[in-house]
Amino acid sequence: MAAAVRPVINSQAGWNWLVFLLFPARVIMNDERRYPLQKLSRNDLCWCGSGKKYKHCHLRLDQEQERAKRRGETVPERRVILKTPEQIAGIRESCRLTKAILDMLETRVEPDITTEQIDRWVHEMTVENGAIPAPLNYRGYPKSVCTSLNEVVCHGIPGPRVLKEGDILNIDVTSILNGYYGDSSRMFLVGEVSEAARKLVDVTYECMMLGIEQVKPGNRLGDIGHAIQRHAESRGYSVVRAFVGHGTGIHFHEPPDVHHYGQPGTGMPLAPNMVFTIEPMINAGGYAVRVLPDGWTAVTADGSLSAQWEHTILVTEEGVEILTA
Ligand SMILES: [Zn+2]
Hints:
Layout: E1 3-4, H1 12-22, H2 24-34, H3 59-70, H4 85-106, H5 115-128, E2 132-133, E3 146-149, E4 152-154, E5 168-177, E6 180-189, H6 195-213, H7 221-234, E7 238-239, E8 243-247, E9 254-258, E10 275-278, E11 281-283, E12 289-291, E13 298-300, E14 306-308, E15 311-315, E16 320-322
Antiparallel strand pairs: 1-8, 2-5, 3-5, 4-13, 5-6, 7-11, 8-9, 10-15, 11-14, 12-13, 15-16
Helix pairs in contact: 1-2, 4-5, 6-7
The structure holds zinc ion.
């Protein structure tokens, strides 16, 4: 499930200088909040929200990060939760279930079923496997899955709409298994679809995979966005700006925001044990979107078709592992 873009406060650094001149102590306090290492003792609850003691969770990874920083290496911002081996194992299981739920749908999505039926299938299989559908009641979202049809960019709400020949449908599944999140979405072609629709779906898949190919330690978020944007725009499509990929695993939406456009060599550096989604939304027309009065359903402003694919990925020492593949 895509995250809405958070406002970027670029002026923060500038303000810090001014505040430093006036109140030096204030800056130190800010820094402590960003780097809680100095404040947490071994038996405190970990800052990541896992509910575990710090010494059993992020203490070791944090110490490694501190050492890397002292060596002058570029490390991700501290608010990014680098996952512990235990967390990665849990997220891997959750992602496996999410993939299995999408696999289950592959043979069932066809003309004449409703999107509400898809919601029931997803809900049942999630619960049967001891998991919770993450979208249900998330900030008031009323269903267990997102179903985004044709001009719907993302966050379409399942309902009585009957699928018909020629529709293209994104189904976005997020499971919470043993507290860990796995997030993935795919496009489904309903019966025979137009050549234009098929091409948009195919190019969007290629965009996602080209973005994933950029994932390795040392590359930056901007490298991912650039690869996606270049491919989409070379085919005459546009990249949605209003929604982004996101860190995930311990919480539904964690930092960082993963933009699907950008400049190479810019943005946060990637480091092993980061887990985030790559989920480009590509429009046949312009990239502007508007949200319907239900507060969720985002559609293309010009009514053009939109497609989206999504994987949750893990940054490894060597490169990338697609957890929902
Ligand atoms: Zn932790």
